[in-house]
């Protein structure tokens, strides 16, 4: 929808690097839908790595500024399994621990504490230790507020991920709250930033709304893909 507002001749290749087919999308939806033989459960929370569950499955984690909508997005991803309790607070910085969710026997999803405003005192030690030591981590999802775009604290997070050599992808949240013009401005600025300043970031930016579920199906499919749960031909 945004492409209609671009100038003719603008390079749009980075908008659609990941284009799953219907079979891949259906596979992802099935993995995010729980049943008796495929439970999706909250596993545990941890403030230190020695409290984290064993790294038995492929893992993805979600990080971002406080109030960027991390927990809301994770709840939207798990909307097909409504019994999974993902706590969402109106107070920024509510998540103080690393929260682990197990998706059957396929992968684990981790909700990390937010950085910036009201971040936990031991945030740096907790997150840096996790990123450096969690060898089953397949991809980090760095959430950016679609209303305000990249902030200084986001630049710091990018520098940390680049320094550690962690593969990551940026997700633009709250796209239902912003005008088309401002959203497109933020998208293009972030894509230019990724192109000029990063090596470990996937070039495609994922746009999502946890309220209207825009982009959620594509993000589910990408999570399924990076955790190795899509056949190569489908991915």
UniProtKB/TrEMBL annotation:
Source organism, top-level taxon: Eukaryota
Cofactor(s) annotated in UniProt: Mg(2+)
Keyword Lyase applies: no
Membrane-spanning parts: none
EngB-type G domain mapped to chain residues: 56-229
Keyword Nucleus: no
Entry's Gene Ontology cellular component terms: mitochondrion
Keywords assigned by UniProt, alphabetized: GTP-binding, Magnesium, Metal-binding, Nucleotide-binding
Signal peptide span: none
GO molecular function, one term: GTP binding
Protein family: Belongs to the TRAFAC class TrmE-Era-EngA-EngB-Septin-like GTPase superfamily. EngB GTPase family.
Stated name of the protein: GTP-binding protein 8
UniProt organism field: Illadopsis cleaveri (blackcap illadopsis)
């Amino acid at each position: 929808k945004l492409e209609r507002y671009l100038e003719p001749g603008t390079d749009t290749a980075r908008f659609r690097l990941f284009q799953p087919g219907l079979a891949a999308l259906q596979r992802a939806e099935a993995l995010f839908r729980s049943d008796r033989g495929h439970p999706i459960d909250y596993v545990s929370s941890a403030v230190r790595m020695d409290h984290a569950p064993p790294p038995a499955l492929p893992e993805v984690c979600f990080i971002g500024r406080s109030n960027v909508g991390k927990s809301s997005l994770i709840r939207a991803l798990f909307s097909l399994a409504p019994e999974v309790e993902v706590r969402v607070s109106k107070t920024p910085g509510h998540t103080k621990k690393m929260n682990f969710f197990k998706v059957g026997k396929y992968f684990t999803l981790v909700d990390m504490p937010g950085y910036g405003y009201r971040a936990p005192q031991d945030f740096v030690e907790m997150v840096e230790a996790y990123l450096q030591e969690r060898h089953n981590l397949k991809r980090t999802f760095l959430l950016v507020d679609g209303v305000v775009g990249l902030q200084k604290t986001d630049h710091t997070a990018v520098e940390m991920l680049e320094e550690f050599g962690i593969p990551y992808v940026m997700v633009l949240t709250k796209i239902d709250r912003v005008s088309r013009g401002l959203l497109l401005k933020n998208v293009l600025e972030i894509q230019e930033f990724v192109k000029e300043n990063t090596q470990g970031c996937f070039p495609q930016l994922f746009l999502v709304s946890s309220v209207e579920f825009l982009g959620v199906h594509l993000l589910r499919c990408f999570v399924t893909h990076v955790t190795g749960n899509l056949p190569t031909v489908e991915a």
